[in-house]
Amino acid sequence: MYEFNYHRPGTLEEAKKMLSASEDPKIIAGGMTLLPTMKFRLARPSDLIDLGNISKLHGIRDDGDSLFIAAMTIHAEVASNELVRAGIPALAELAGNIGDPQVRNRGTLGGSIANNDPAADYPAALLALDAVVQTDKRSIPSERFLSGMFETALQSDEIVTGVTFSRPKRAAYAKFPNPASRYAIAGVMVAEYADSVRVAVTGAAACAFRAAELEQALSSDFSAAALDGLEIDAGELNSDLHASPEYRAHLVILLAKRAVAAAGG
Amino acid sequence: MKSQISLQLNGDKVSAEVESRTLLVELIRQRLGKTGTHIGCDTSQCGACVVHMNGRSVKSCTLLAVQAQGADIVTIEGIAENGELHPMQQAFREHHGLQCGFCTPGMIMSALDLLKLHPDPDDREIREWLEGNLCRCTGYQNIVRSIKAGARAMRR
Ligand SMILES: Cc1cc2nc3c(=O)[nH]c(=O)nc-3n(C[C@H](O)[C@H](O)[C@H](O)COP(=O)(O)OP(=O)(O)OC[C@H]3O[C@@H](n4cnc5c(N)ncnc54)[C@H](O)[C@@H]3O)c2cc1C
Ligand code: FES
Ligand code: FES
Predict the structure, then answer these.
(1) In B, residues 89-128, which contact A (CB 8 Å cutoff)?
(2) 3-state secondary structure of B38
(3) For A173, A176, A207, B36, which has the most beta carbons within 10 A of its beta carbon?
(4) What is the pTM of this model?
């Protein structure tokens, strides 16, 4: 790893100043993605701005119809927090199955979504739970936030401060994990709201997406059987050593059915 | 950039001057001389480097020493008391939970974190918890057995 300057600001304002004053800065949250990338010399920031000491970026709040989770909240905290477990248990479940316990003890919500790995779990929750990403500058609806493979709507000096998740009537997440890394070969989150059903798929394509056809079928009948005979177009799906596009298309329907069943549909 | 950091290591206050890029595991092994914490993969996969930071298990190969400023760090050297093996160490010894022993410090530090959440874990909970700890020798059977026995001894 190349040497860099390290900063640990105590406030968001200080962090912003450091970001604009540094030559080629990078934010570090849990470091679970960034540090390996720097070890491989795929990234060589001049300065690392550590968000760990900014108390405003920690914590979970129940806002009635929604839950607010601050950016620096670690996966282990989302998995065990009482407000999340009571309000959106599917989200706690999703966080509790990310990677391994030590990754969950360091990796953060903000870091995960800012990275937008096509195989990460949180992007599915962002789309299925109609989430809004809060930054130091603005609010960004999840569909606009997740803009492509490892790409987001974030500007280079923008800091994710938290995410607001809408509370569904019921929801569940089902994933087919890579047996080594636990990243999703495919993962599907299904969420039922008073007036709609949202189905979000991660791991299968370059970026997480909503499956409109599955949403339509489940809106009229929230049951696994409602998905019988439906197909996902394999044309746009990922192909790698873990799975072919056709296999991923098959997994998406299967996992959607499992998620619906787990949600009690 | 060099900075002076101080932290608690196994209950002792220590300080050192480190580069920003110094990993926590390098600080612990090379500078502070506690070589019980191992480096297996150096890529956050194997768990040989697991230590406790402020009460949670973490991979010290994927943490900067400067990030541990002010933290409370416990390594495998910090769990024995009065010269007697910790019950979990004793259980690994009695139940053949190790062969070459390279993964063992990480396994034990990881297991102790699990027991904070589940003092009486079943086989499935133990195996799921060990997702981030690789062993190339034992086939895990005796590791799971050791953790169960260690947990039993600790509940007594
Ligand atoms: C062995 C292993 C297994 C894993 N398995 C899974 C898995 O199964 N599922 C899964 O979803 N993930 C998995 N991960 C990824 C993990 O969940 C982390 O969440 C993820 O690496 C990024 O979070 P972080 O907090 O570590 O971010 P960092 O590594 O610190 O940062 C990642 C990127 O986000 C930027 N960033 C961080 N915080 C902010 C912010 N607040 N505002 C703006 N930009 C920010 C950084 O600049 C950097 O570019 C795994 C990781 C490892 C090492
Ligand atoms: S050396 Fe840290 S996880 Fe392998
Ligand atoms: S005992 Fe040799 S790696 Fe586990």
Answers:
(1) 110, 113-114, 117
(2) coil
(3) A173
(4) 0.97
In what helix (H) or strand (E) does residue B3 lie, and over which residues does it extend?
strand B2-9
Nearest-atom number in ligand 1 for the CA of A108 is: 25
B21 touches chain A (CB under 8 A): yes
Query: pLDDT (tens digit, 9 = 90+) per residue, B78-132?
Result: 999 999 999 999 999 999 999 999 999 999 999 999 999 999 999 999 999 999 9
DSSP letter at A122?
Answer: H
Q: What is the ipTM of this complex?
A: 0.97
Q: Considering its fold, how many domains does chain A have in total? A: 3
Sort out which chain A residues have CB atoms less than 8 A from B59's CB and list them: 102-103, 106
What is the structure's pLDDT at B127? 97
Domain map of chain B by residue range?
2-78, 87-155
Ligand 3 center from residue B97 Cα (angstroms): 9
Q: Record the tokens describing residue A234, joined without a space.
A: 């394999």
Nearest to A3 among B20, B50, B63 (CB): B20
Q: Which range marks the domain in which residue A258 is found?
A: 170-262
Ligand nearest to the CA of B46: 2
- Residues in A touching B114 (Cβ below 8 Å): 101
- The reply to whether residue B56 touches residue A105, judged by beta carbons under 8 angstroms, is yes
Yes or no, beta carbons of A36 and B50 under 8 Å apart:
no
Chain B residues within an 8 Å CB radius of A2: 21
**Same domain assignment for residues A204 and A192:** yes
Question: CATH: 1.10.10.10, 3.20.20.210, 3.40.50.1110, 1.10.150.120. Which one for B87-155?
Answer: 1.10.150.120
Cβ-defined contact of B21 to A4 (cutoff 8 Å): yes
Mean pLDDT taken over chain B: 97
Per-residue pLDDT of chain A (265 residues), as tens digits, is 999 999 999 999 999 999 999 999 999 999 999 999 999 999 999 999 999 999 999 999 999 999 999 999 999 999 999 999 999 999 999 999 999 999 999 999 999 999 999 999 999 999 999 999 999 999 999 999 999 999 999 999 999 999 999 999 999 999 999 988 899 999 999 999 999 999 999 999 999 999 999 999 999 999 999 999 999 999 999 999 999 999 999 999 999 999 999 999 8
